[in-house]
Amino acid sequence: MAVPGAGIMGSSLSVCVMMVLLIMFSGWVLVAESAIGVNWGTVSFHKLKPSTVVDLLKDNNIQKVKLFEADPLVLRALVGSGIQVMVGIPNEMLATLSSSPAAADLWIRQNVSAYMGKGGADIRYIAVGNEPFLTSYAGQFQSYVVPAMVNLQQSLARANLAGYIKLVVPCNADAYESNVPSQGAFRPELTQIMTQLVSFLNSNGSPFVVNIYPFLSLYQNSDFPQDYAFFEGSTHPVIDGANTYYNAFDGNLDTLVAALSKLGYGQMPIVIGEVGWPTDGAIAANLTAARVFSQGLIDRVVGDKGTPLRPGVPPMDVYLFSLLDEGAKSTLPGSFERHWGIFSFDGQAKYPLDLGLGNKKLKNARNVEYLPARWCVANPYRDLSDVANHMKIACNVADCTTLEYGGSCNGIGEKGNISYAFNSFYQLQMQNEKSCNFDGLGMITFLDPSVGQCKFLVGVTDTSSSLRPYQRESSSIDIISKQIDRLYLGGEHLVQMLQDENR
């Protein structure tokens, strides 16, 4: 029996349903806006309490955070915060997770299910590895990635979380290559595994996550145009047919878009897992450059400008690297590795930055508990000619990277270098009086020895600070000794030594 008006009602209903579906799935075709998040790394000698960091995130209206591992203290602090979380799995765990469904079940149970539920942590993504396709890994992890994801996906399904949590793989930008963006393609040896990976992501509604670092392009290539690394227009644009690229970020992103298109997934949503600019430890790493890059990036992303291959379609999310400085990271890539934070280790904003999240500038961490205002410096009344070995010990354990060539403390002279090294060690040892002895070459002062932008730190009292007496990182003692020899030379001798090495 025909019902009067049924055709109109059915047509209207169909239109409404279609509109709802378009809105629901618009992220897969056209992203309306991009959200700014941050990476929260914890490889630090001086760690703030996780609750203090969560308050810092909330005070700055940061609603998305990416973690590199499932740290129980961090995850507990995020419970009930309303902050969306991407939690990471280290590369070293991929082999086990790829071969053992039971191991995948256990990981999900201990690191995800345990923190979720009503009022729990809002875990949205699991990052399976971190840049597992880096060329420097020589294929060590790549065969484990997809099998690990399959096991983890099944574990999520058994935990009734598969519809809420998405698996992703943060990829490095050297996974794809091309002279111009439109010819982008994944590295030949990765074509098969990337086809499998992207198919898996697509079938499970996951985005492609990529880390993009224009700073590294500038740092590693002396011929790289400096203005092309930023967002203020370049005198050396890349011409690609009808498209012109004025910054490295857009060029890199469209190279990925082209690579995905070659595999048949040109509309796959993209998330920027890491992007940022360091503030110390290298010539181009400074506060001004970091501020200009970060603000330019945010303005471009929040402005929904997109790229030539995706006009008006910015990445789904962009995670700044990083929230805080991490003074215990390996310096093998460069001394700048410890200075990526938009905040210093103690949660103090390094430079003015509008995240586009409501605040016009960053808000500092509240209620940070510092050690007393005292420092360890070189004793001016002692002969310092035999201080080199003491500096090696100090900087082998503590962080002296700001003394490196191009660092903020590079120009403070020999005695300044010694004092900085001594103080870094002293603060790391929670100001233990004996740690400032150095066979009588050190002394404690209550006058701040900081000089200009070279800040002599005071540690925090948080019990989670990493006391690492006489523990050194993986770099060899020869590398460390060479670095400390440079620090002791100082001034013109330091510059001359570096010039000789680069010949």
From TrEMBL:
Tree of life domain: Eukaryota
PROSITE patterns attached to this UniProt entry: GLYCOSYL_HYDROL_F17
InterPro entries: GH, Glyco_hydro_17, Glyco_hydro_17_plant, X8
Boundaries of every X8 domain copy: 374-456
Membrane topology of this protein: Lipid-anchor; GPI-anchor
Keyword set includes Transmembrane: yes
Reaction it catalyzes: Hydrolysis of (1->3)-beta-D-glucosidic linkages in (1->3)-beta-D-glucans
Gene Ontology biological process terms from the UniProt entry: carbohydrate metabolic process; defense response
SMART domains: X8
Family of this protein: Belongs to the glycosyl hydrolase 17 family.
Protein name: glucan endo-1,3-beta-D-glucosidase
Taxonomy of the source species: Eukaryota, Viridiplantae, Streptophyta, Embryophyta, Tracheophyta
